[in-house]
Amino acid sequence: MRKKIVAANWKMNMTQSEATRFISTFLLEVGESRDVEIVLVPPFTAIATVNAALENAQHVKVGAQNMHWERSGAFTGEISPAMLRDLFVRYVVLGHSERRILFGETDEIVNRKVRAAHEATLRPILCVGESLEQRERGEVEQVLSTQLRGSLAGLGAKELQETVIAYEPVWAIGTGKTATAEQAQEAHAFVRRVLGEISDEATAEKIRIQYGGSVKPDNARTLMSQPDIDGALVGGASLDPRSFAQIVQGAGEK
Predict the structure, then answer these.
(1) For the CA atoms of 213, 125, 134, 153, what is the dihedral angle to 10 degrees?
(2) Is residue 197 among the annotated active site residues?
(3) Which domain holds residue 55?
(4) Disulfide engineering: 233 pairs with which of 20, 93, 162, 166, CB 3.0-4.6 Å?
């Protein structure tokens, strides 16, 4: 059985002091539940602070929002996999739609990063998803298949099993719009089918697929009760510790 994974993508938010206050409140709210894997994904500047604040909360993991694929070099402003490992980061979000749209990241670039993450024993959270225009043109499956095949090229079964996929319809990110549970399940089932074609059905059944796109406490339980939805990548709602704790608790409810 796949263990649910809920990650908080803070994006370009949270100073070190704000992150410390968040964690203090969040840990009180969420309790000691081990039913759900919890990942906090702060900006680079707060990673060390978040790790320190989580010293006695080993059930909460830390992730990063991006990284370069090279180990080192003349890449001003970039962060390497080795630097993330040095900060005890476990997960790294790659291919987020904001990176693809605002910074021109292609499937080839994302693939380089995914492979570099595995080489550094980091676990990628790979984001895929269609725009509203693509959905309205009936291109959802084409878009998802292309992104998955391009971003996961060259990975073996073990690496695929250690990759988390985050299905995030671009039209639902930060808009307040959410895919219905039926729409989300349909997309997740298709993603799993493509993963089976990339590798095999047994491997695909072990890969966790999150939903992202305006996840809130009032829709989290319904979304994550779907058979192919194995958690959530949460944006705006993860900036409030009580709200995020409620989402985590919703993921753990049977």
Answers:
(1) -170
(2) no
(3) 5-252
(4) 166
Exposed / middle / buried, residue 114 (Cβ in 10 Å: 0-12, 13-18, 19+) = buried
For 92-121, write each residue's pLDDT tens digit. Answer: 999 999 999 999 999 999 999 999 999 999
70 is catalytic: no
Confidence band for 187, pLDDT divided at 50, 70 and 90? very high
Phi and psi of 20, rounded to 5°? -60, -45
**202, 232 contact by CB (below 8 A):** no
- Which one from 130, 159, 168, 188 is the annotated catalytic residue? 168
Model confidence at 252, in pLDDT bands (50, 70, 90)?
Answer: confident
The predicted model scores a pTM of 0.96
Residue 93, domain CATH:
3.20.20.70
